[in-house]
Amino acid sequence: MSMGVRDRRHRDETEAERTFRNIIKDCHKNKTNFVDNQFPHSSSSLGDRFSHDVFQWFRIADIRSSSKDDDQLEWTVMSSPKPSDIEQGLLGNCWLIAALSLIVERPGILRHILLTQNVNSEGIYLVRLCHNGLWTTIIVDDFFPCYEDGTLLFTKARRRQLFIPIIEKACAKLFGSYSNLTSGQMAEALQLFTGAPCDYIHLDRSDEPIDSDIVWAKLVSCCQANLLIGASTGRHDVSKDMYDQIRINSNHAFSILATHATDKDSVRFVLVRDPHACSCYRDEYITPKVLTQLRTINNAHRSTGAFWIEWTKFLRFFSKLTISTYVNNYFDIREQAKFTRLPTDPITVFYFHVPHQRELCTYWSGSLRPGIYYIIPFSTSFWHRHEQTEELNGFTLVIHSSVQIEGLLGNEKTTFLADSLIAYVMKSCEKPQEFDNTTFYTTPKNQKLTIMVIENLSTTYHLNVDVDMSESRNIRHSRNSFVTHDCIPPQHRQIICITEWIMQPGQSGRQSFKYSRQLVKNQSESIPPVRDTTDDIHTLRPI
Question: Label partner for 233 (CA 20 to 30 A): which of 4, 266, 405, 498?
C-alpha cells in the first residue's frame, strides 16, 4: 500500500527524534560533545580538490562571521531565512545552492529537511535527504571547514544562520566529500530535498522548435500551482561574450519566482533569481512604469539576485526549465530490488491497482485508467558481467500518485518479461517487414535498446533465422554472440536478441546486421543454445 508523503515524513521525523535523544543521552553520560567519526575533520572529507590546501575545522562557537554586523548576533539554525541570505563559498555547487534558494522560499519544506531546529551545545544535527529513491537521515556534528581567520570556507548564510552549512555538510557526507558536490544538475538537488521527480522543458532544441505560447502556459500553470521551478543558462547558440554583454552568468542555475503578462499589450515577464547574486541584468522593456506594476505582483526583485526579464529574452538566453513535481499531499511507494544478472534469472515485477483515474508520475508521467497494472524494471547491462558488479545492480522503484494505490512486489519467470517486450516491440515497430508467413519486428531507431522479434505464421513449417552482427562495434549483445541461428516452430515468436550501446565518451559505435530466413520441415538447435526449460528471455513463445 502506498504511504502518504506526510505520513512517511512523520514516521522518519519520529525515528530521527529518538536517535537525536539517544545521542544527547550518550554525550551527557560521557561528558563530551558529539564528534562524527564517519565524516572526519580531515582532507578526506574535503576531497581531492582541496587535499593540498591548508584549512582548519572549527566548531560553531569558534567560527567568525564574514560580516562585522553579524558578529554581534547569536548563532541560530534558522531565523526567518530568505534566499538572499545564502552566500556561496569556495565550492562550484550552484546546482545545490539554486535548489536551496527555491526551498528557502518554502519554510515548511525546509523544516522537514533540517530536522534539528535549534542550536545545541552537544553539536548534533540531523538532516533528512532522499538519495537513490530512499529517504535517509544524515547525522553531522558542528565542525566546519574554515579559513585560518575562522570564517567558513564553503556556503554560508547571513545573520549567523546555520541551516545552509549544515545541509551542505550533510550532502557532502552523503556523497563522500565536499569536492563531490561540484558540478551537478538542479534536478538532482530538488529530488534530494523533496523525493519527487522533475519535469524538464528544453528551450534550445535544434531538432524541434518550441512553441513559446505552450511553454509560457505551462510555466504560468506551474507558478500558479506553487511548484518549485529552476532555470539554466548555457545555450549552445549563445557565446560567453553574449552572456557577458547582458550581465547574466553562462552555464549557471537560477530560480524562477513568478510570471506576469501586462494587461494592455500582453508583454510577458519572468522573475528570476541568481543564487550568486552577481547577475546585473537590465531589460529595455522594464520601464519605471512597468517596474511599478511588476512590484505589485512580487516584491522579491528587491532582494539580492532577483531580476525581471522579458519572455522572448528569457527564451533566447535560457536553455532549460526544471520543474519539481513535489506536492505534499501525494502518496508514494518506494521498493528496493535488483536487476537480473542473466537472461534466465527470475525478474522483479511490481503489481499495483489504481482504483480511480489519477495522474501517476515517476520517470514516466501520465494518467492511468482504473485497473491493475504491472511494472517490470529491467536492464541488460548486468548480463554476462563479472561478479564484482553485484553490488551495483540494485535499484529503487518509486511511484508517486495523487491517490492511494495498492501494490505488491513479486517475482516472475523471464518469459513474463519476454511476452511483455514482444508486445511492446510489435506495437512500437514503425514498419514490420513481412514475407511469406514471416514477420520481422524491431524497436524504433531512436530507442537506446534494440530488440529484434521474429514470428513464424506458418502452420506447418519451421522457420530458420540466421542473424550476423559481426560488423557492429561497441554494442552489448544479450546472447553474448554476434552470430546467431534459431529455428522457430510453426505459430511461434521469439526475441532473437537485445542489444545496447556501450561506447565510452569520445568513442563511436556502429550497429549493423544481416539476416536470412528459410522455411524448413525439420527443427534444428539454436546457436548459442536457448533452452525452453531454463525460461530464457529468448525462449520460443506461442502466438
Answer: 266
